C-alpha cells in the first residue's frame, strides 16, 4: 500500500487550496462584483456561471485526454495556474467598461470569466485533479478525499472572511489583482517542485487524439462503469440544488439581510469551519466502503441547514443553518471524491475527470443558476443596489434548494446497491 509522500501532500495542499480560493472568488465574489459594479441582474450571473461551466468542462476533457496521451500532468498544472492568475486580474478590469449599453458590459464580463475559467480548468481540473488520482490508491483516498473536500470549505472561509475584509478596504479591482498574482506565483513554484507520478505512462490511441477524445462518449463506456455513472448522477442532482443558492448567498446576506461583507464572511466562515471537523470521522467510514451512508446523513444535515437559513435573520440560527448546509456540502464532496477515484479506469483517469466535470460543473452550474434566476425574479425582492433597481434573492431561494437536494436520494439508492454488489463480488 503506497503512501502519498510528504512532499506531495504539501503540493496537494498548496495547489489545491490556491485553486479552490480562486474558484471561490469566481463562484462567490464575481457574482457579487456583477451586482455591485455592473448591474443587479440575476440573468447576467446565470449566463456567466453557465458559460464558464461549459468552457471548463470542455477544457477538462481536452487537457485530460492530452495528459493521458502524453503521460504528463505537470506542464498543464504549471502553465494553467500561471495564466489562471493573469486572467483573474484581467477580469477585475471589466468594471471600467461603460455600462451603457448594458449588453456590451454583460458580454465582456461573461467572456472574461470564460477565459479565466478555461485556464483554471487547464491547471486545476485537467491537470491537478488527475495528478492526485495518479499519486494515490484505494487505501488512502478517503484521507485524500477528506483533504480535497475541506479545501473548498477553507477557501470559502478565506473567501468569505478575509476576502470580505480586503474588499471593504481596497475594493474589487485591487483584490482580483492580488489574488491573481498569488495563483500565478504558485504556478511558477510548481515548475520547480512538482513531479509526475512514476506510475503514469503515455496511453495513446493509435487512431489519433480525437478518436481517443471521443472514446468516452459511447454507451459501452456507461455500461462498463454503471456504478461510477450512478455516482456521477448523485453528484449532478446534489450540485444542481447547491448551485441554486450558493452563487447568490453573499448577495442574500449583504442585500436582503443587510450585513456588510466582513460580517457575511464571519457568519459563513464560522459555520463552515465547524462543519469541516466532520471530515475526520467521515474518512474512516468512507475507507470502509460506507460512502452511501455518509452521503445520506449529509443530505439530511444539508436540508435542515438550508431551511434554518431561510427561517430567520437571527445570527445564531443563521450560524446553525450554515453549519448544517456546510456539513452536507463537505461530506457529500468528500464521499463522492473517494468513491469516484476508486472507480476510474486506470488508463482513462484524465478523460474521466472530464466526464466528472459534466456532472459536477457543467449540468449543475447551468441548471442551478437558471432555476435560481426564475425563483429570484418571481419570488425575490425588488430593491436598489448601488443606485440601480434590481431583484434580490429572498428566503424562498433556500427552500427551493433544500427541496431539490432531497432528490439526490434517488440516484444514491441505485449507486449504493451497485456498490454492495461489487463489494460482495
Automatic annotation (TrEMBL):
It is found in: Cell membrane. GO terms for cellular component: plasma membrane. Its main location: membrane. One of its GO terms (molecular function) is transmembrane transporter activity. The chain crosses the membrane at residues 9-30, 42-64, 76-97, 103-123, 144-167, 173-194, 228-249, 261-282, 294-311, 317-337, 358-376, 396-415. Residues 1-419 form the Major facilitator superfamily (MFS) profile domain. It holds the Pfam family MFS_1. It is a multi-pass membrane protein. InterPro entries: MFS, MFS_dom, MFS_trans_sf, MFS_Transporters. Keywords: Cell membrane, Membrane, Transmembrane, Transmembrane helix, Transport. This is MFS transporter.
